[in-house]
Design brief:
alpha/beta; Rossmann fold; 5-stranded mixed sheet; 5-stranded parallel sheet
Length: 209
């Protein structure tokens, strides 16, 4: 889904601990294949206790399709927000999204945490996660259009508008960013993501040795 989030989100202070792990925010336009790449990577790292996937809290029905998420009502989301249960939260497409504050514990242990993020709120992610790595997933415009058409959720005019909005969002230079062109087979983009994550883990292991 194309990201057009309103800047109404915020971050939860992470306390005095400096995280030694890395939060990897996977972002990109609708049709780029973010969820598929995340699933590919998590399959590769299956059984690796130092690699985690964030299960986002979303005000969307559990059976609405898409990513595996924790479904809550608007009131339930407000209650969790008030209780400080989110490291980051934001609004987009009439829904509310939250990254559980528990990821800070995983990062404090030096672990690697993957999250489906949003280009529109990277400033919130960076404030909450100073060791942030942004993985910007892209694809050629014609590939994005074909994938969106295959979903059958929107008209041609809606798809064109979504592609135009998505193309206007870029990653500011201040972020540590890896761009993956996922126009081709999933395995190609997936191997690039896995290689980058393996490098992060190797660097962490070297620092601890």
């Amino acid at each position: 889904m194309a990201e057009r989030a309103r800047q109404t989100g915020s971050t939860q202070p992470s306390g005095t601990l400096v995280p030694s792990g890395t939060l990897v925010a996977v972002v990109g336009p609708s049709g780029a294949g973010k969820d598929s790449l995340i699933q590919f990577a998590m399959a590769h790292f299956s059984g690796r206790p130092e690699v985690h996937l964030v299960q986002r809290v979303i005000t969307r029905a559990a059976d609405a399709g898409g990513e595996d998420h924790v479904a809550v009502s608007a009131a339930g989301f407000e209650a969790q927000q008030a209780a400080g249960d989110f490291a980051v939260h934001w609004d987009a497409h009439g829904l509310r999204y939250g990254i559980p504050a528990s990821v800070q514990d995983q990062l404090a242990q030096g672990h690697l945490v993957l999250a489906n993020g949003s280009r529109s709120v990277l400033d919130l992610f960076h404030r909450a996660f100073p060791t942030l790595l942004v993985v910007n997933v892209t694809a050629r415009p014609e590939v994005l259009a074909k994938r969106l058409e295959a979903r059958g959720r929107e008209s041609v005019a809606d798809i064109e508008a979504r592609l135009k909005r998505g193309g206007s969002l870029s990653i500011p230079a201040q972020y540590n960013c890896l761009t993956i062109d996922n126009s081709g087979p999933l395995e190609e983009g997936g191997r690039k993501l896995v290689a980058a994550l393996e490098e992060l883990l190797a660097d962490r292991a070297a620092q601890q040795s």
